[in-house]
Each structure stands twice: as C-alpha cells, then as structure tokens.
Task: inverse folding
DNA sequence: GACAAAATATACCGATCGGTATATTATATA
DNA sequence: TATATAATATACCGATCGGTATATTTTGTC
C-alpha cells in the first residue's frame, strides 16, 4: 500500500543485484507497478531515490555500530561487540550490505561512491575513535589508529564478503575468531 | 599512433574514475579522437573492450603474484613477497588497481563483476594455495585456508585502499608491518 | 603500380536514458 | 459537502545508449 516504501524496497533489490548505474528508473517503477511521476513525487531524482535508500538503511547500521563501539577499557570486548553488530546487520540486511560494500569500492567520481561516502566516513571515524581511546591503555597502539581501523574494517568486510558468497556462516564463534586473529595473529 | 592501445588506455582511465556502466563508448572514442567503428573494429562490443583491458592489465598482476607466492617453508617471507608484489603493482598501475577493486565488489549480476571474477578467483586460489602448503609445516593453520586467504587479501586491499585515498604511502616498512600484524596481531 | 586487406569515417538505427507538463483521481480537512 | 492537497497516470521531451550498414582511406604485398 505504501508506494514510497515499496519503491525503496525494490530499488534496494535491483541496485544490490545489478548496480545503481545499470538500473533505470523505468525498471524500478515497473517492478513496483506504478509510473514514473509517482517515483518523482516522492524522490526528486534517481539520485534522491538512492540517498533516501541510504538514509533509511544506513542510519540503522550506524546506530548499531555506534552503540557497539563504546570503549570501556576492554578492547577485545569492544571489538567483539562491533563485529557482532556488523555480522547481525549483514545477516538481517543482506542486500543492503552487499550494495553498501559495492558502493564503497565504486569509482571515486561515481554517483554511488559520492552518495555512500558520508556513511563510510562515519563508520571509519567510529572505528578510529575506538583505537584512539584504546591507545590510552595500550600505548603501543598510538598513532596507528588509521591503519588499524582500516585493517579491522577490511577484515570484517572480507569475512562478510565470504558470507555473501555463501562460503561461510556468521556464527558467534567466528566473531571470536575474527577478533582473536586481529589481536594475536594467525599463529596463536 | 596505435589506436587500439590508446583506446584501452583511455577506457582504463574513464572506467577507473567513473565506472564501466557510467562511461559510454562515445565518450571513450571522443577522448581518443577516433570514431565508434574504430573501437568496434578492435573490440566486438563494449564488453569486449572491458575484457581486453582486463587481459592486458590483469594478467601482469597475476604473473607477478604467482611468482611471489612460491612457498618454500618460510610463510612470513612468502607473505612479505606477496604483499610487496601487490604494493608494487598498485603503485605502478594505480588506475587499474582501483578499477579492479571496484569491479571485485560490484554487484554479482553486473557485467563488471562477471568480467573480473576469473581474475579474482585466480588471485584467491593462489593465496589459498599458500596457506594450504603452509599447513604442512604449521598444522594449526589446517582447514582455515579459505578464511585466511580472504582475510589476508582483505588486509592487503584495505591498505591499498588507504594508499589510493592518499592516506599513506606503500613503503617497505609497511610490507613488514602488514605481514607482522597478520601473523602476530596488533599487540606484538 | 595493382590489389587485397586492414583501418577509419559518415551517417544512421531502434531502444533506453533521466525527467516533466498536464490531467486525473484519491484523501483529508474545513 | 466544498475545497485544497497529496498521489497517481498519460503522454511526451531531448539526449544518450550500444551498435552497424556503407563508403572511404591507409597500408602492406606482390
């Protein structure tokens, strides 16, 4: 009944499967069963449709990651909580996570990348904040927060990438393994 | 003078900056200063242009990574050699690496992803082979080669991603740090 | 220089692109 | 019930999409 939500749902499916550029507005409205003016009534442009989609889905991820990233002296615990939040979100919003990942690595001058960048930057700042705080307790981390944040997010996304390709399941054990490997390497 | 090479060069620039879908063949030929039949004389289609580009650039990366991935009992040494090969390639062929990264994470049913998948799979098999061989010497690695290969490539690409965004330089010291962190974690 | 083949250009194809002017229908409020 | 507004549809816009039929030029070979 709510055509606005159905347009967003449909755009999410199509964008995540074939990409923002490859999907036309015509295809979106036909899949929903409405016409173009309906889409342009709710969203001013195709870009506006994408940004509304990012707001609806992306803010939920940010909220959960933000809540998970409170550092209170136990870095392993905080990182495990963060990984759990990412895994839970990727499982609950598989299509969106696939789309977000694709947009994050899309070319720098593409519309998709420009639209996702604010969300990516926020995730990144959250992660860097954790390592900056942790450096107060673990001095040898100091000055490496950029690399660590990128590396940790890279590890998380590599794992979720395997999940998206049906090569593993995101278990609670995997949360532990992921953080343990990041903290202590593959030999221990 | 070689219009075929110039078309590939130009396609590489445009695809890496704005993406395969967002760049039309018209734009490519105009940037080179030829006309469409010239492009279609060398490449049967836009997709053929992309695949020729991947063959020209991607095979070089595969050759170098393959040579770097010979395991002879010293896992740290092999991983460092591999990271060095990736870093060298990313520095030497920045545009192509950016494009490859974007295509790897592009939607599964997009042309870009389907075209890059053979190359991505080969890189992945090379990495898995290293960890499978290393498991003969380090039994505790056994059965985790998929996760480790994905995690290691994820770490490499996260680092190169920072380089592509001008947030660090790919030094020899960073090679050591990347492998050391992967092997022993961030605390040591 | 004759001639075949490769390389390039002109001019066009139908289809689709994102977007809109205008009209109509449904809905809520007074 | 009158009226304004939100929601939707019909029909269209110019531009660009990937691709091609045909003709011309260049090039290498004998």
Result:
């Amino acid at each position: 009944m709510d055509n606005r939500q159905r347009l967003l749902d449909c755009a999410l499916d199509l964008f995540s499967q074939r990409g923002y550029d490859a999907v036309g507005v015509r295809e979106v409205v036909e899949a929903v069963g409405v016409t173009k003016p309906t889409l342009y009534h709710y969203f001013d442009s195709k870009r506006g449709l994408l940004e509304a989609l990012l707001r609806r889905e992306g803010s939920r991820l940010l909220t959960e990651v933000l809540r998970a990233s409170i550092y209170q002296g136990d870095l392993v615990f905080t990182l495990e909580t963060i990984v759990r939040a990412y895994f839970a979100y990727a499982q609950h919003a598989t299509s969106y996570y696939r789309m977000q990942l694709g947009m994050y690595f899309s070319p720098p001058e593409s519309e998709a990348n420009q639209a996702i960048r604010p969300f990516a930057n926020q995730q990144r700042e959250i992660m860097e904040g954790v390592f900056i705080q942790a450096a107060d307790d673990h001095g040898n981390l100091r000055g490496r927060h950029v690399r660590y944040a990128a590396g940790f997010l890279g590890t998380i996304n590599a794992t979720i990438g395997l999940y998206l390709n049906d090569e593993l399941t995101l278990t609670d054990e995997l949360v532990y393994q992921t953080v343990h490997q990041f903290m202590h390497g593959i030999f221990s």
Observations:
- Chain B touches chain A through 48 residues (CB under 8 Å).
- Residues 24-26, 36-37, 40, 45-46 of chain B lie near DNA strand D (CB under 10 Å from a C1').
- The longest helix of chain B spans residues 111-137.
